[in-house]
Specification:
The protein has 451 residues and is mainly alpha-helical. It contains 19 helices and five strands. It has helices at 3-17, 23-28, 31-39, 43-62, 97-109, 120-127, 146-155, 173-178, 194-257, 262-279, 291-300, 313-316, 324-331, 333-347, 352-364, 385-400, 411-418, 429-437, 439-448; strands spanning 89-93, 113-117, 134-138, 163-168, 186-189. Helix 7 links the parallel strand 3 (134-138) and strand 4 (163-168). Helix 14 (333-347) runs antiparallel to helix 15 (352-364), helix 15 packs across helix 16 (385-400) and helix 16 crosses helix 17. The longest helix is centred in the middle third of the chain and has 64 residues, at 194-257. The model is unreliable at 1-8, 15-21 and 39-84 (pLDDT under 50).
């Protein structure tokens, strides 16, 4: 038996053993049909026959017309009405070669380019060397498990909106579902059918396509806005400088009442600019941060605590730890500040972009990435990017600065607290990695802009 015939025979046995095609369906086939399938020398033709059998079984069970389930040719990719020339790339990661071959053949038939990796280490090398849209990732692998690979992909995304679909034949349904909370986009429990495989992969790729288009649209809008700003920059530069000066003056008045200094606000501006500039270089944030975003962020950051102007003195100036009911009142500074800025935004729509970012920062800079912050308990990317950036700088500076209820901490002490495992859910992991990489620059900024 030649290599291709051997592959076809192995593939057939694997499909039967994993219930991709049910044994009872196979048993019902006429002997001539079985012999025809078993003798096919071309594994791809064999796979097409098995797909036909699956469609036939679905038709017999559901009564749906087979005409509506005709498979598209390879050039149609995901859908007949998708005019995009983009060819999707999928990396199949499994230590079982036959499983990789099966997935590759099924997805290639749908016009999707597939590569294979036999383990987690090879998978990471592949995703960081060429772009992929989706990783089909087995959990149970030697050297580096699928869960560990998923964690590394989410901590350091190789590209924007990379989809990860998990596979396992041993994990329970609940264990697989738990993967969704750690960054997986979907999962398949072995044995799975060909229809389940293609449907889950297509759904994930459609979502990525929509997210990519949304990012592109946002980037185009920001670019257009930036170009409009450039045309007006010459005559409006004085107004912009006046706006920035007034913002800083207003924020300093609030900070003065809170016993904070103007140096804190200036440091926060510098932290935010640095963090945003470095984060813009990451593939995971590509298209979300441009020069205009950074300029607005630097101007809006000092307004993060503007709502504190509405807090009573006995809470704002209390030298000791706040009681639970006092802490609830303290937390209202986020909503009060946002409400004031929203009122201004409604009255001055010409400054909507600037004021909306100020609202986002004021309301959400105390949210946590794991959803345990306040006031809205937002989680992940639901927290505005501007607020996620400001939150890191604000916490770092608060740890470094002296307060009536605590001493100032050194840079190593502040870093130790922020990197403690108990605080891992507080910050955006991608932004936090950027912060750690530039920690020395944060220390330098604090030293140069001391109170």
């Amino acid at each position: 038996m030649n290599t291709v015939q051997s592959l076809g025979s192995q593939l057939l046995q694997n499909l039967l053993s994993t219930s991709v095609i049910r044994q009872d369906d196979w048993d019902k086939l006429p002997l001539e049909r079985k012999e025809q399938l078993q003798s096919l020398p071309d594994a791809v033709m064999l796979l097409n026959q098995l797909i036909d059998l699956k469609l036939l079984a679905d038709h017999q069970l559901s009564g749906v017309s087979l005409a509506s389930q005709v498979r598209p040719g390879p050039k149609s990719a995901l859908s007949a009405d998708d005019a995009s020339p983009h060819v999707y790339r999928v990396l199949v990661v499994d230590d079982e070669p036959t499983n990789c071959q099966l997935c590759r053949m099924v997805l290639s038939h749908e016009g999707i380019q597939c590569d294979e990796a036999p383990n987690g280490v090879a998978a990471l090398e592949a995703v960081y060397s060429k772009p992929y849209d989706l990783v089909l990732l087995d959990i149970d692998m030697p050297r580096l498990s699928g869960a560990e690979v998923l964690k590394k992909l989410r901590e350091n995304p190789p590209s924007s909106h990379l989809k990860v679909v998990m596979l396992s034949g041993r994990a329970s349904g609940d264990e697989m579902a738990q993967m969704l909370t750690t960054g997986a986009d979907d999962y398949l429990t072995k044995p799975f059918s060909l229809v389940q495989l293609t449907a889950r992969i297509k759904a994930a790729l459609h979502l990525k396509s929509a997210q990519d288009r949304s990012d592109l649209l946002m980037h185009l809008m920001m670019t257009m806005n930036h170009e409009m700003d450039k045309t007006l920059h010459a005559r409006n530069s004085d107004l912009v400088h006046a706006r920035n000066a007034l913002v800083l003056a207003l924020a300093e008045m609030v900070a003065y009442r809170d016993t904070e200094s103007g140096a804190h606000l200036m440091r926060l501006q510098h932290y935010s600019r640095l963090l945003a500039t470095e984060a813009a270089k990451s593939p995971g944030l590509a298209g979300q941060i441009d020069a205009n975003f950074i300029e607005l962020l630097e101007c809006c950051a000092p307004l993060h605590d503007i709502g504190k102007v509405g807090l009573p003195d006995y809470i704002l100036l209390k030298p000791g730890k706040l009681a639970p009911d006092e802490r609830v009142i303290m937390q209202t500074h986020t909503t009060m500040g946002a409400a004031v800025l929203q009122k201004v935004a409604r009255q001055h729509s010409f400054a909507a972009t600037f004021l909306q970012m100020a609202v986002d920062i004021a309301r959400h800079h105390h949210e946590r990435y794991d959803g345990n912050g306040y006031p809205d308990r937002l989680a992940g990317s639901a927290i505005p990017l501007s607020a996620r950036i400001v939150a890191i700088g604000d916490v770092y500076d608060a740890l470094r600065s002296r307060r009536v209820y605590k001493p100032a901490l050194s840079h190593p002490e502040a870093m130790a607290i922020m990197t403690d495992s108990g605080n891992h859910g507080q910050f955006d992991p991608l932004l936090f990695q950027v912060f750690i990489s530039n920690a020395d620059s944060f220390d330098k900024m604090y030293t140069e802009l001391q109170d």
